[in-house]
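User: ok so my PI wants both of these folded by tonight, can you help

Assistant: No problem, let's get them done. Here's the first:
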Amino acid sequence: MKLIYQIQQSVRNYLLRKSYYKLYKVIYHNNPLLKKKAVFEEKWLQKWKSLDSHIKIDSYRIFSRYVGEDINILPLEYCATVIEPFLNPKQFWAYYNDKNMFDKIFGTDILPKTIIRNIDGSYYTADYKIYKEKILSLSIASKCIIVKPSIDGESGRGVVKLQKGNGNINLESLRCQFGENFIVQECLSQHPYMSQFNNTSVNTIRVMTYRSLATNEVVIPNAILRVGAEGKDVDNAHAGGMFCGISANGVLGKYMCDYLGNKKKSFNGVDYSNSDFCIPNYNRVKEFAKEVADKVLHHRLLALDIMLDEQGNPKLIEVNVGGFSAWLFQYTNGSAFGQYTDEVISFLMEKK
């Protein structure tokens, strides 16, 4: 069994590396200037090849054009195949990635209200009691509901917003449309300040949390704002959305970026280049992120998607324990781990 697991992981890592090599080619095709040699490439290679002699220069060559010549810039393929599994043991990924478990792990107060959930084909109420009726009457104030996969729903895939209609849900029809393992939640209205960036999507703050290998303290090395494209329900970059950096005190960066590195000063008619946008209640957002991370003891590296409700209170939308997407931060803010990079490298070296 151990040999089979090792083979599976080797195949997975091979495919992950190939996917990043393919992404680099697409980025270069989109912007050929990024392929030119960058300053301090030799220093970057010296640092990272001490961990893996096969590391390629592409991540540094691309991201140094956005955030400067920082030798702490993460090689994406190495982060996905080595750093993430090191910090977040894979045997626990499924549990923390299942949105139907969020109410149990984090409590209901910080999440959108659950209306009904489907787990392996069976319906359960918000408090996990089996529900056998075919019709569910809605008793919510919101005019719409959100249906999303509870597993394997990355990048906003499969998320659908539905109008409440007459207030009843036909659960058989829902199962025919969405299959198994999904969750139905009440739509939350976002803070007016966040709505100005796009009022059709809930625009979330992606907060990176890292539980220090040296101190076990949860810190926040990075955060970005994700904004959906006009008319879209989701804010994911792979669904047409864009993102911008957030400073330590909540101030937004001066440009938006997409997943291929295309930069825009304006998006959805909003000019970021000449504005001093600042996330409301940002200190509370950071405290909230740390509180969430404190409940995920099996994993040290999280990417949390947090919204601000109408009153400015943070609500947890998503917890990512795999598929960290370091490129979001390295296009906009700087190296993903920043001042904690050498700490992570040091512990990786001990494990070699």
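One down. Here's the second:
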Amino acid sequence: MRNKKVIHLIFAVLLIPLTVIFYGCGKEKKQESKSLTVVSWGGVFQDAQREAFFKPFAEKFGVEVKEESYSGEYARIEAMVNAKDVKWDVIEVESNFLLSATKKGLLEPMDYKVIDKSKLIETAIHPNGVATIVWATVLAWNKDRLPKGVPPPSSWKDFWDVNKYPGLRGLRKTPRVSLEMALLVDGVTPDKLYPIDVERALKKLDEIKPHISWWTSGADSQQKLVSECVLTNIWNGRAWATLQDGKPVDMTLNQGFLDYDWWVVPKGAKNKKLAMKFIDFASNPEGQIAIANKFGYGPPNKTAFRLMDNKTRKYMPSDPNNLPMLIRFDAQWWAENEAWITEKWNEWLLK
């Protein structure tokens, strides 16, 4: 009997380290993931992001960065979150989705204890997102098509001046920015653009409607600038790419409409902590400069410009010297009004 008690005691003592090891292993399983899924726009832009952000982050933190691409299918993100089956950790989105997703509670708040917001320009910081690029819709022209002796255009007023600058004008086939351009030319000051007077803007657009060549994609705008139009509104990165290709084009940032793309983390992301580390890493100047040099989109990092040459800085929307001449595109207003405005716009197109 006594021997049995001794045996039981020995067995109990032996169980203690086994129990400790078991629970220790359980804690190890709960450690931070070593994998992160990042989603962006694909193509050459994501190729550049891979070299600027994804690979260096993976090497520095010893993690695997998995990539996916999309074309802004925001309904898919909402479906993931609502189903509590979130496959993506970090996603590049436009301002309109950042704002609407914030309202719907689809995004994790940014952890600004991990993300150093002091290195970012003020307008690149949002409770649920951090800007990854700063871009603008700007006025560009084909130098070979400008009349001899006439100075280059400098504002949207010149875009409307078909006598001074005869020829086709490229214009994106959307009311976004088109209406704001028209109101500026009609005398509305930038601080009074919103809420947009749609009827007034469409009436002003009537003046140049016969001279418009519509574009619907970034590549389309570049093609029209090179082969067809004297002037166009265009995303600054597309104008920059055309300029870098050696084409006879130029642009002005004056009265350009400023907007951002953002890194966000969907609600319920499985690797939220690692996602915040990635966003902080991607906010450093080195990677942002690489993107800016290749695509012309401005870096949100404050110090990046000190490392860039003046020729490049001249075209960057987020350069401190350029920001005062740009107009902030009101994505929030558009998110709330786009549906009914689009109906009016489509009716106007058919007239």
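The beta strands are 35-40, 64-69, 90-94, 125-126, 129-142, 169-172, 212-215, 231-235, 249-264, 327-328. The chain has two domains: 35-134+260-319, 135-259+328-350. Good luck tonight!
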